[in-house]
């Protein structure tokens, strides 16, 4: 199975994004080991999370609707979010990886969502701390990722909201709700 996936990735993605996918998979597996998630599911989700990122928006929209996926208007507001939905559909319907946890992890890897399962948190984070990333807060987020998954996810959500706001980009409601949920959970402890 991996042979076919690697071929698909190298056919569909630029070298840069292909390497990014391998890095996210590696990081996801490390986090899964640390936080007791399924190693293979983590690796696979990491490999495939961006598989549709360089496919045309038209094809992505077609995949999403043919996959019977109903996303809110808010979730469709930014075309940058579409690859998460189309990649999830692609791995389920075309690569026949029929696993709800993997689907969810890929589907929400860009926005997050409230009450994320562990695998979804891991992919969200692995995407932000993979070897090919470079930003000011990265060393801090990496360190936190190995100490406390929930605190790291909370920090990562805060960082991406700040980053999007600074750029004047659209912030999906799911991301704001995800952060609220993480903060509420912390207070309830
Ligand atoms: Fe992505
Ligand atoms: Fe990514």
Q: Supply the number of structural domains.
A: 1
Which blocks of ≥5 consecutive residues have pLDDT under 50? none
Compute the separation of the termini in Å: 42 Å
Strand/helix succession: HHHHHHHHHHH
Keywords, please?
189 residues, mainly alpha, Hypothetical protein af1432, 11 helices, globular, binds fe (ii) ion
Description:
- The longest helix is centred in the N-terminal third of the chain and has 21 residues, at 15-35.
- The protein has one domain (2-188): Hypothetical protein af1432, CATH 1.10.3210.10.
- It has eleven helices and no strands.
- By secondary structure, the chain is mainly α.
- Bound molecules: fe (ii) ion (2 copies).
- Residues 20, 24, 49-50, 127 line the site of one fe (ii) ion.
Short summary:
With 189 residues, the protein is mostly helical. It is built from eleven helices and no strands.
Layout of strands and helices, then pairs:
Blueprint: H1 2-12, H2 15-35, H3 39-48, H4 57-66, H5 73-76, H6 82-94, H7 100-107, H8 118-129, H9 138-145, H10 149-167, H11 173-188
This protein binds fe (ii) ion (FE2) (2 copies).
One fe (ii) ion (FE2) binds at residues 49-50, 53, 83-84, 109-110.
